[in-house]
Amino acid sequence: MDTINLVEWAGYLASVIVAISLTMTSMIKLRWFNMVGSLIFTIYGFMIEAYPIALVNAFIVGVNIVFLFKMYTKDDYFTTLEVDRNDPYFKGCLKFYREQLLKEYPEIDTPLKDESIVLILRDMSVAGFCIGNIEGDTLDLKLDYATPAYRDFKTGKYLFGNKDSVYKNKGIKTVKAVPPAEHYHKYYKSVGFKEEEVNGKVCFIKSI
After folding, report:
1. What is the pLDDT of residues 41-62, one digit of tens each?
2. pTM of structure
């Protein structure tokens, strides 16, 4: 009886993980969750001797592995566009992502002095945008947003780590950012920022 219960729980667990995978906005996360769920379904299928279930899910595991390999090894094309607040493309992005942005950046509509606005394109789709204030050779980031489909940190690594970065070409040597939420900490650390405390606030700083 205990064995049967464990088998049933394996089926429930696989179902939940696969269902969760379908809610992911990031394709990489979707593939990972879906692969794990399908793997458990494969084991479940063999345990109950439902071989069609096991074989189909084993195939799905293989498909996910192939796509994940392509995602991690693919050379994406990146480029940037410098715009201002009147740019129709930028205004369209703000309008489309406005609800999400206002949760973490409530002052998004307030223009900055010496403002720098950069759109990051990945394979010619908008992967993110940054708004910052330039003071000498320092950029003080006020907004650093990655669109839901591109939250694998590659955009940040390109923007702040590329030798031909738009910011380097503008003479920027230091980038500062005060994250609006704790989940940004992992992102900034992964793209080479160092955590410091400035005026009682957690700040991330990177020399470029």
Report:
1. 999 999 999 999 999 999 999 9
2. 0.69
DSSP per residue over the chain, as a string? -HHHHHHHHHHHHHHHHHHHHTT-SSHHHHHHHHHHHHHHHHHHHHHTT-HHHHHHHHHHHHHHHHHHHHHHH----EEEEEE-TT-HHHHHHHHHTHHHHHHH-TTTTS--TTEEEEEEEETTEEEEEEEEEEETTEEEEEEEEE-GGG-SSHHHHHHHH-TT-HHHHTT--EEEE--SSTTHHHHHHHTT-EEEEETTEEEEEEE-
Task: Tell me the two tokens of residue 16.
Answer: 């939940």
Question: How many other CB atoms are there within 10 angstroms of residue 13's CB atom?
Answer: 15
